[in-house]
Each structure stands twice: as C-alpha cells, then as structure tokens.
Design a protein that fits this description.
This protein is mainly alpha-helical. The chain is built from 12 helices and 3 strands, in the order αααααβββααααααα. Helix 8 packs antiparallel against helix 9 and helix 10 packs antiparallel against helix 11. It comes from Planosporangium thailandense.
C-alpha cells in the first residue's frame, strides 16, 4: 500500500512538472500565474509531507526520539513497511529540501532588502515613478508594499511617447498585481522540490505576459506593445537588483509573438488536467499519512496494552481479595 501510494505521488509530481509549462501557454497569463503558483505550492507541500512521513517511523526509532513519544521502538521497527535504506534516503531528502528552502528564502529576503535600499533615497517624480538620471537604458518595478517603478532617462529618451506609455503601463501592472510575490512563491516551491523548476520558470514568463496584456489593453494597441517590448529588450542591459520585475524578463520572442496574435482565450481542459494531478498528489499524501498513523498507532496501542494488563490484573486480584475477605467475615 505504501509503495503504491508513494509511486502515485511521484507520478503526480512529474505530471505537474510536465504539464505546467504547457498550461502557461494555453491559459490567459493571469489565470496561468494563479493556477501554476497555487499548484506549485500544493505539490511542494505534498512532496515534503510524503517524504517526511516515509522517514518518520525510522526517525522515531532513534533512542533520543523514542524517549519523547508514547510508542515502542521495537514495535515501530517490526511494523514499519519502509526499508531502512529508503527511510534514510527520505530523511536526507527532507534535510536537503529544508536547507534549500531556507537558503532560497534568505536570498530572496536579502534581495528585497537590497531593492529597498537601492531606491530608498531616490526621489519620486510621480506617485510611484522614479526617474534616474543615467545614460544606461533600464527600467524595473520594485515589489509592493510601497512598490515603485524605476526608469532611467537613457531609456526614456530612446523610446517614443507612445512606447513610454507602454513601458510604464507594463511596469505598473507588475506593481498592481504583486507579480514579485507570485514569483517568490514558486521559487520557494521549486527550492523544496526541484521538479518544480519548470513551473517556476513558467510563472516568471506568465507574469511578464500578464503585464504585456495589461499594457496592450491600456494603450489599445497590441502591435505597439509588441514593438515596445522588443525595442526595450534590445536596449536594456539587465543590471537591476534581483527580485525586481522588468519588461525584458521572460522569453521576449514568445511574448512578442503572443502580442501579435489575438488575446488568449480561457480553456477548461488544461485546468481540469492540472486539477486531476493535484487531486492525485493530495490523495497519495493522505494515503501515506494514514499508513504512517497506523504504524504509530499499532506501536502505541501495543505499549499501552503492556502497561494496562498488570494494572488490570492487580485491580481484579484486589477486588477478589476484598470479596474473599468479605465472605470470610460473613
């Protein structure tokens, strides 16, 4: 049972990793971003839970851990269906996942702090627009709260008035829709489960497409938006701090091709496919959890019976003696 549910979970993780990039191309970018980020978090939580549950009965047998719980280490050892070698591997995988998660989280938090410091003293010419006097073309959005758009005079001079409108609308979309946090969520999920790296890349592309579509709707010209994105990609040399959102991110040729076509339509079938994969992953996680609970319950109940039997026997003997004394007194 445990082997089957574990295999089902792994198949679901691989299936999500395969379907995620395809889903990002078939759905409107806003829907793709939400679906992939949510799915990545579910798969990440499911994978770390399954691996930890497989390792738990072996970890609980260690003398230092066994003393803390109401279970019998020998009974856990005899009732655990997971081989020792597999349990040790799972323990190592859990440790590696937590280490990667901690490192990635620290790097992203540090990057956000750097971004804040980078623009802390820059004067805003508008509500959230910061223009930097520099000949180097560049533009990016700082994640909210207190999100800002940073653009250099070099890039503004290189673009026409209409193209500047597209650029600023694109960067404003990054701020308004909190795109940096969607990207952060999938980066953390990918740190937990490396199979999710493809979905993290797909979300990075999807948020850029989302901002492109917002800009195209605002200016009312998809061809102009496509031309602006292409020109910005040729002009800008990426120097912005990590975790900042830029108009030159993602796969620029794919973004331009998408803008040259019709706006994306909603599709139900890819969403149903992803929902099925997530349901399989959650079902497998529940199956492994149930099996692990059974292993611990059997070990705990056995220990409880061992402690209960002598006490019961003593109570019965005591009652019997009391009755016997009572009968003799009669």
């Amino acid at each position: 049972m445990t082997a089957a549910t574990t295999l089902l979970a792994v198949v679901a993780w691989i299936g999500f990793a395969v379907i995620a990039p395809r889903l990002a191309r078939r759905l409107p970018p806003a829907a793709a971003t939400a679906a992939l980020a949510t799915g990545s978090l579910i798969i990440a939580a499911s994978s770390i839970a399954v691996i930890a549950l497989l390792a738990a009965p072996w970890i609980a047998q260690l003398p230092e851990i066994a003393e803390l719980g109401p279970w019998s280490a020998p009974k856990l050892r005899s009732g655990n269906p997971v081989p020792v070698a597999a349990a040790v591997v799972c323990t190592a995988l859990v440790g590696a996942a937590l280490a990667r998660l901690t490192l990635t989280g620290w790097q992203r938090v540090r990057a956000i702090v750097v971004v804040r410091r980078y623009c802390r003293h820059l004067p805003a010419t508008d509500a959230n627009l910061v223009v930097v006097d520099s000949d180097q073309p560049d533009a990016f959005a700082i994640p909210p709260p207190s999100g800002r758009i940073v653009v250099t005079t070099g890039l503004l001079r290189a673009l026409s008035a209409d193209e500047r409108r597209v650029l600023l609308a694109h960067e404003q979309a990054h701020v308004d829709h909190h795109h940096a946090w969607w990207v952060l969520a999938t980066d953390l999920a990918a740190a937990t489960n490396p199979l999710l790296r493809s979905s993290a890349q797909a979300v990075r592309h999807a948020v850029e497409r989302w901002a492109d579509e917002d800009a195209a709707r605002q200016v009312g010209d998809r061809v102009l938006t496509a031309r602006t994105i292409a020109r910005a990609a040729l002009l800008v040399t990426p120097t912005q701090p990590a975790q900042a959102m830029t108009a030159t991110g993602g796969n620029v040729p794919d973004r331009v091709r998408a803008l040259m076509g019709a706006p994306p339509r909603r599709r139900l079938l890819p969403v149903l496919g992803m929902a099925t994969i997530l349901a399989l992953s959650l079902s497998a996680s529940a199956g492994v959890d149930s099996r692990t609970d059974t292993v611990f319950d059997r070990a705990s109940l056995t220990q409880a019976r061992i402690g209960w039997a002598p006490a019961t026997t003593t109570a019965v003997n005591h009652i019997g003696v009391s009755h016997g004394n009572g009968n003799r007194s009669r």
